[in-house]
Write the structure tokens for this entry.
Amino acid sequence: MANIKIGIVDDHKIVRDGIKIMVEDHPGFDIVCEAENGKVAVDLCTTKSPDVIIMDITMPVMDGIEATRIIKESHSDIKILALTMLSEDQHIRKMIKAGASGYILKSSGKQELITAIETIVDGKHYFSNDATQAILQELVTPDVNKVNDEDDVHITERELEVLKLIVNEFTNQEIAEKLFVSVRTIDAHRRNLLQKTGAKNTAGLVKYALKNKLFSNNS
């Protein structure tokens, strides 16, 4: 049986190095690539073809949620294991929706990490017990002060840029020129925003942005 090819994605090198130390000597595991953000990870999937990616959630340039979504669309056979902290429990469900096969805490030990990798490669899901308990606690003890997250709507950084310009009354042509892309690309971003937010038109997008306080008053 061929070795399991593993990719590690985290914006902190010390975290990547720590994971490598835990798994690189395990029989049947090969570390084939590592990346500091989701965008680099997406590119590496084509050249390195990992079987499993251990994916951090919060990263610059492109976060783990968007990277997971893109990778699973073009490489459905690659398994994603989300790397999370308890404080990020609100993101875990988004990672699962994006296509992750499970999640593990950054505080987990070597044996749990190995078990998680082997479990998802076997076609099953692996959910860290501590993180699961945090989510269950949130569900059974709802916070009345918590702002509704609009059914876990995930807007990418680029879509936020476009939305901000829409709120500031830029036309599609003006947005395209400002972001150095085609009008067709802006049309696609606008359609995605309408679909994700449930808005029917530009006024609806502006209302959504204001309701969810996406931009400060001086934006």
